[in-house]
Amino acid sequence: MKERQSSSVATAILRTTQASARSRTPLEHRTSSPLKRLPIRHLLRNIILSAFLTKHFLFKPGFAALKYIANSRSRFLNPDSNILLRAAINPIYNQFCAGVNEKEIRYTIAKIRDLGFSGVALINNREIQIARDAKPIGAQRTRVAEIEEWRNGTLRSLDMIDSRHFLGMKFTGAGQEVTEALIAGRAPPPAFASAMQVICQKAKEKGCRLWVDAEQQAVQPTIQQWVIPLMRQYNDGSNLVIYTTIQAYLKECRQNLKSILDLSQREGWNLGIKLVRGAYIACETRNKIHESKAETDACYDGIVRDLLSGNLEDEFAKKDSPPRRLELFLAGHNSESVRKALALAQELSDKCQLKISPEFGQLQGMADDIGGEIIDFADSVRNDEGASTSSLPSLDSDGRVGDGRRRQIFVPKVYKALHWGSVHESMQYLVRRAVENSAAVDRMEESAVASKKELWNRVKLRFLGV
Question: pLDDT by residue (tens digit) across 425-466?
């Protein structure tokens, strides 16, 4: 009798899951605008900046000036001390950065949460960029103060975010001594190692997650060497504090991923992965990068497919290895890749075969339509499941009912990555955003069209009532 009841419950759950999945509209066919949450000033700024970044006669001189200012050591060309220069750069800064001080940053975070995002990733813009000749460029200060300033700024970032939100870190932001050690492949300076322990311990106590940003290949191998001992220490047991970043535009991307998966599996610690395409193409060694954007896209999408389905993990699974948790954060602005990942996650969850529930993120000022689509998708899942599962029994701790079928409901979470710092500290970051957006002309033009359409719909509704 009990077996018959359990079987009928499992069948009811499976039918309900399939019905809910069929009722969800694919992202590309949704009729409501994903930009409906954005304020008008944001839509206008999207339209204006899209024109600047996609028109060659505007972008070429504007970018040259932006890059020159970013690399200059002149006080006259420092936007923090030159009011007129800061006023000229502010429209770009306001599009891509959260603010200079805590008041501005908290205001931005609150507005992002009001839009429906699950949370934020907060990153201090201090960094030193590496030229092609492996020499540091960008903001530099006295060595004595650099690491302490970076430590204090990172701890301030931690104070401004909630549990389960992300803190992003750039190791080169800790200054000249740290950057030189990264380039040379040396051990971290003692002051930096001590600062990392303080930051990681505070994040663990607060329940926040840290991701260590990937940087240029002149320093990235050493960054990975420094991160692995921290993951061993803070990703043990039930803890997963630190994420490493994998760059899909590198030819060695998949091998890098397999190496870190293998190591975490053999040693038995949890692994957090942030997958990105890569943002340093303008100053990287070209032969280390895929020959085309299509190859980078294929690498990114292939890794997502293999991680969600468990194909990569199966290569390293060992019966005598301790259990290990794997979390995946998909950072990207490519709508096709995001939609593929969402569709695959939904398909696998409907079949009870989803190995990892991915989280998504986009940078502030970019891909607002994609973030809105993910929020709409998550809302539709909650509405469907809230209505259809209210009469079903609760699942046990293993997620199983009746004949052992596992119930999986995929509700995506999406975050906004917010960069903060003074205008001068943010210049290298703004240069990279300009390069990335100008290279993705189709995406920028599509975003501008969507912003114009949403703006026109609001005008019609306000003045014409339609």
Answer: 999 999 988 887 776 667 777 888 888 888 888 888 877 766
The reported pLDDT for the residue numbered 143 is 63
Q: Please state whether beta strands 400-401 and 405-406 pair in parallel, antiparallel, or not at all (unpaired).
A: antiparallel
How many CB atoms neighbour CB 20 within 10 A? 19
Tell me how far apart the alpha carbons of residues 85 and 345 are, in angstroms, rounded to a whole number. 46
Residues near 69 by beta carbon (within 8 Å), at least 6 away in sequence: 77, 79, 85, 89, 427
- How many residues would you count in the chain? 466
| Weakly modelled stretches of the chain, pLDDT under 70 | 1-32, 129-144, 282-283, 313-323, 386-407, 439-441, 465-466
Per-residue pLDDT tens for 132-178? 555 555 444 556 578 999 999 999 999 999 999 999 999 999 998 99
CA-wise closest residue to 344 among 310, 296, 379, 387: 310
Nearest to 183 by CA among 250, 244, 129, 144: 129
* Residue 210, strand partner residues: 167, 242
Q: Quick check: helix, strand or coil at residue 293?
A: helix
> Residue 218 contacts by C-beta under 8 Å, 6 or more apart in sequence?
130, 134, 182, 183
Specify the amino acid at residue 210: L
Cα dihedral sign, 244-246-252-255: positive
Tokens found for residue 270: 């949890």
| Element spanning 121, H or E | strand 119-124
- Evaluate whether 66 touches 116 at the Cβ level (below 8 Å): no
Max alpha carbon distance in the chain (Å)? 84
Residue 81, CA distances (Å) to 78, 126, 448 in order: 6, 17, 33
Residue 309 exposure: Cα atoms within 13 Å on the Cβ side: 12
Task: Indicate the SS3 state at residue 289.
Answer: strand
Cβ atoms of 115 and 38 closer than 8 Å: yes
- The C-alpha angle with vertex 414 and arms to 413 and 418, in degrees rounded to 5, equals 140
CB 48 within 8 A of CB 95: no
Distance, in Å, from the CA atom of 154 to the CA atom of 168, rounded to the nearest integer, reads: 9
Report how far residue 48's alpha carbon sits from residue 54's, in angstroms, rounded to the nearest whole number: 10
Question: Rounded to whole angstroms, how far apart are CA atoms 183 and 218?
Answer: 6
DSSP-assigned beta bridge partners for residue 122: 167, 418
Q: Is the entire prediction scored with pTM above 0.90?
A: no
- What one-character-per-residue DSSP string does 398-443 give? TSEETTTEEP-----EEEEEEEES-TTTTHHHHHHHHHHHHH-HHH
